[in-house]
């Protein structure tokens, strides 16, 4: 019995020593991973079946937007064209408009069409908006981002209006009168048409102006890298594109950890200094 106890102690000591050796070896491997190691798997689960996808990809000097070259099915192509048509916005006749020639809400005004008409609940109220620039001159093109509403402060009631851009500096706004009593009409300029063009430029040239970050962790070692739809530079990236929807998403690969070690995701911040001095005037 004493011999059995002694043998058990020797066996436990050997197993403990082996575990320490394995732990030290793994730690050594972690600390000396090559920065350009191509490894890691993106795991998804469907009906308890796991599928893997290689995650690390080298980028070129241009932003990593290879998803733009994807081949779309006929249904996807139709959906893309529909979405692009929905966000299509009218442009000014000239590429660059001076700030004094942009829309000035102080010089602009609106009138109620047929104000003497008797209105009842359910009727439609029409308003005509006339926009002018900072010199008081009527604008000859549209594209302004307006918001219109009717409201009754005493009743704490309100409703938005449907805006039609006539593309000539005039806008028609239609309201449905939903309650009896007095209503006030308000029209606000959110962005002039010139500012919209700046936003369109930023959308095309700086799709990553809002950036995100992900944390990767293995044991006590952790790293945080930047993530986005497009990532500039020629560093290795982890591909977290959704395998079902095709929605692209990439993170810079950690220097010493695999892509599979990602544990969290959060917003990083905003890029600043993207507007010229003239462009910034449109957003004051």
From TrEMBL:
SUPFAM superfamilies associated with the record: E set domains
UniProt KW Cytoplasm keyword: no
Transmembrane segments: 6-28
The keyword Amino-acid biosynthesis belongs to this UniProt entry's keyword annotation: no
Matches recorded under Gene3D superfamilies: Immunoglobulins
Matching InterPro entries: Ig-like_fold (IPR013783), Ig_E-set (IPR014756), NXPH/NXPE (IPR026845)
Keywords noted in UniProt: Membrane, Transmembrane, Transmembrane helix
PANTHER family in alphabetical order: NXPE FAMILY MEMBER (PTHR16165), NXPE FAMILY MEMBER 3 (PTHR16165:SF9)
Name of the protein in its database record: NXPE3 protein
Species of the source: Grus americana (Whooping crane)
Annotated gene: Nxpe3
């Amino acid at each position: 019995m004493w011999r059995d106890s002694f043998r058990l102690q020797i066996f436990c000591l050997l197993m403990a020593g082996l575990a320490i050796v394995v732990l030290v070896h793994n730690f050594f491997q972690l600390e000396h991973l090559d920065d350009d190691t191509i490894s890691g798997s993106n795991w998804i689960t469907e009906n308890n079946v796991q599928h893997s996808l290689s995650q690390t990809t080298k980028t070129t000097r241009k932003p990593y937007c290879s998803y733009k070259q994807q081949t779309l099915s006929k249904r996807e192509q139709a959906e893309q064209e529909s979405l692009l048509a929905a966000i299509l916005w009218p442009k000014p006749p000239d590429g660059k408009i001076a700030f004094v020639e942009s829309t000035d809400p102080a010089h602009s005004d609106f009138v109620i069409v047929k104000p003497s008409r008797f209105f009842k609940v359910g009727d439609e109220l029409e308003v005509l908006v006339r926009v002018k620039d900072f010199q008081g001159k009527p604008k000859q093109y549209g594209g302004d981002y307006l918001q219109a509403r009717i409201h009754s402060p005493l009743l704490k009631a309100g409703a938005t209006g449907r805006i039609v851009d006539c593309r000539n500096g005039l806008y028609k706004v239609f309201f449905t009168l939903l309650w009896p009593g007095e209503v006030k009409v308000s029209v606000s300029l959110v962005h002039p048409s010139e500012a919209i063009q700046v936003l369109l430029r930023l959308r095309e040239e700086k799709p990553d102006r809002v950036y995100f970050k992900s944390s990767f962790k293995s044991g006590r070692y952790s790293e945080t890298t930047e993530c986005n739809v497009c990532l500039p530079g020629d560093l290795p990236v982890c591909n977290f594109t959704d395998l079902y929807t095709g929605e692209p998403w990439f993170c810079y690969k950690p220097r010493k950890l695999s892509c599979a070690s990602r544990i969290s995701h959060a917003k990083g911040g905003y890029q600043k200094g993207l507007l010229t001095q003239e462009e910034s005037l449109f957003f004051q």
